[in-house]
Fold this sequence. Notes:
The protein has 9 helices and 11 strands. By secondary structure, the protein is an alpha/beta fold.
Amino acid sequence: MSGVTEAADAAASGAGATIGPVPADAASERAEAAAPDAAASPTSTTARADAVELGAPDATELGAPPTAGAAASGTVWLVGAGPGDAGLLTLRGLRALESADVIVADRLGARGVLDGLAAEGVHLVAEVIDVGKLPGHHAVPQDAINALLVREAQSGRTVVRLKGGDPYVFGRGGEELFACQEAGIDVRVVPGVTSAVSVPALAGIPLTHRGVATSFTVATAHDQLLPLGGGRDHTVVLLMGVGTLAQSALTLARGERGGDCPVAIVEDGFGARQRVTVGTLATIAAQAAERGVRSPAVVVVGDVVRLSPYAPAALASLDLTFDPLAVPRKAPSL
Ligand SMILES: C[S@@+](CC[C@H](N)C(=O)[O-])C[C@H]1O[C@@H](n2cnc3c(N)ncnc32)[C@H](O)[C@@H]1O
């Protein structure tokens, strides 16, 4: 799909503005976090010594006999679908899909990729089982997904578990991996393009940029965000952050970043509702409420937002020692 469909709001003048009510998307994000692709609690995973096999690039190895200990069963491939555009599926992921007997797909990201492949004329023979949530519908519980993967593989089928973005970025990929390993199933992982990086790129926002930002943190804001150190040169990317936006903005503004730190929200990246909203930590919650910002969305906080062509002049003209904005900018096309 092509560029961003709607330009940013002009940011209201930052400092001192009251942070307004949040658009109510908390319920949807609560469901998302409980859904198959949701954030795993750090305490819910256990350290394992098992080496994880990354999927082989050679299609001839797909469907090859399973490794020792998994005799007579099929293979499970945990495949990252990317952010929803078939063009951002990896070649290794495509090969796995082409070799699959059954595809167990999430809603966010994964279905868009399957539809995109079909539109490109890619014919997949696999049965598709949709375990992703739809608004108002309950997701299949994680335990049931784990059991489904094991059952399908034990019946000798090649299973692709197609997950939005990257399986290991708030995707519960590790839980599915461990469940398969515990059942003695041969399981391989194909990393995917995470929304944390690719969705900001749609709005022309690099997470690091020489002279502007030297590090970044990706955090879930599904639960209340804890204070994160660093200033505006340390980019913060929030996933599942719409419902808690006002609280997160307050938390981040209290630190070194301050209320006039730039923020961008990119909604529904690569989707039909794709849209960018740019403001500051002091203004963004009110702007989001006014515009009816909805999940899924990626929130980016830090001076890198100023590099976006969607950043209004009020943000772009702040003083920087090294001013990358001296270089003419144009909207990116991904
Ligand atoms: C449970 S997390 C899964 C993240 C995924 N594993 C990844 O690597 O992108 C879901 C969150 O990812 C973000 N997200 C995923 N795809 C997105 C998209 N196409 N546009 C905007 N945000 C997206 C949103 O913050 C959403 O709430």
